[in-house]
């Protein structure tokens, strides 16, 4: 299990952690803010952030969260360690990023100032060259199928750089299995799980060539004292290909994801019942109930509408020029 104190930086392995509606306790309570654009930065746009790792100076207490953020220490690629209360940390991060940035704490719930995007920046996210950079796509390659995402999530990400009240990309928790890592691997050496930045890695034995957690979407997991809802597969951008401390650049991952999983790997999770997860806990899977006829019809209409919207974007705004 992993907790990431700062968005887009390396985190810390944990043996035991509480989870609630916000995900892993004290996960991503800090982020790097692009000063000129006024948006929360990510490793998609500033890959140098992956060269840093972050840790809390002390174990966060139960009250840690939005508006009450404990201090962190950031280790830079050159070995320097600066704390969040060091006034020089912003200049050091700016030098690393090659642009003006600031280390920013998650504001109180209801304050969307750290999340809201300007219209020009929202539209910039749909520029053909930018989308292809974000996903590591060559000209002419099709975009990932976004019809798996609820419309409310698509609307949220069009307005905000991260969902208000959080610095996560989309969902509170991210989970993967060892089976998926094995089955995506090209060659003898299994891919390093740190490339994919999950909060939870489930150890699944067996040699079947499959990606089992994708079959759990809509179902529930019981781990430790927590109950978790599997909401959707995790779409993959270019970040897993990028170098991190001890991990080399590997562009073949993008091709493997496209060919084997349609660019999805792992699943996003909502926490239904808060609890405590510990390394070694048994994982119990409860499959999703078969949808009713009305639910099937609704899902079909929603996905068709989303696919139609994506096709329209690809033929207009997204068309390669």
Automatic annotation (TrEMBL):
GO terms for molecular function: catalytic activity; molybdenum ion binding; pyridoxal phosphate binding. It comes from the Bacteria. Gene3D superfamilies: PK beta-barrel domain-like (2.40.33.20). Residues 121-286 form the MOSC domain. It holds the Pfam family MOSC_N. SUPFAM superfamilies: PK beta-barrel domain-like. This is Sulfurase.
């Amino acid at each position: 299990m992993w907790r990431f104190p700062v968005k887009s930086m390396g985190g810390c392995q944990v043996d035991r952690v509480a989870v609630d509606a916000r995900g892993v306790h004290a996960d991503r309570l800090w982020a790097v803010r692009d000063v000129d654009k006024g948006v929360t930065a990510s490793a998609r746009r500033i890959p140098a952030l992956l060269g840093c790792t972050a840790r809390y100076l002390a174990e966060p207490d139960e009250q840690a969260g939005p508006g009450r953020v404990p201090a962190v220490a950031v280790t830079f690629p050159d070995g320097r360690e600066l704390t969040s209360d060091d006034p020089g940390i912003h200049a050091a991060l700016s030098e690393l990023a090659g642009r003006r940035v600031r280390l920013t704490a998650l504001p109180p719930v209801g304050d969307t100032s750290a999340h809201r995007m300007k219209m020009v920046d929202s539209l910039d996210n749909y520029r053909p060259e930018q989308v292809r950079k974000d996903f590591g796509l060559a000209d002419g390659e099709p975009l990932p199928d976004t019809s798996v995402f609820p419309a409310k999530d698509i609307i949220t990400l069009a307005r905000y750089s991260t969902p208000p009240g959080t610095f996560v990309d989309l969902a509170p928790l991210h989970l993967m299995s060892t089976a998926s890592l094995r089955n995506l691997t090209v060659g003898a050496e299994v891919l390093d799980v740190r490339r994919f930045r999950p909060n939870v890695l489930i150890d699944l034995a067996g040699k079947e060539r499959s990606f089992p957690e994708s079959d759990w979407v809509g179902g529930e997991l019981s781990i430790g004292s927590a109950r978790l809802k599997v909401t959707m597969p995790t779409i993959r951008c270019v970040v897993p290909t990028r170098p991190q401390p001890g991990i080399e650049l590997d562009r073949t991952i993008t091709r493997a994801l496209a060919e084997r999983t349609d660019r999805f790997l792992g699943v996003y999770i909502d926490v239904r019942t808060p609890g405590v997860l510990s390394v070694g806990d048994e994982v119990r899977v409860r499959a999703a109930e078969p949808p009713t006829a009305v639910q099937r019809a609704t899902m079909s209409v929603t996905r068709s509408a989303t696919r139609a919207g994506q096709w329209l974007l690809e033929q207009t705004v997204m068309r390669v020029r």
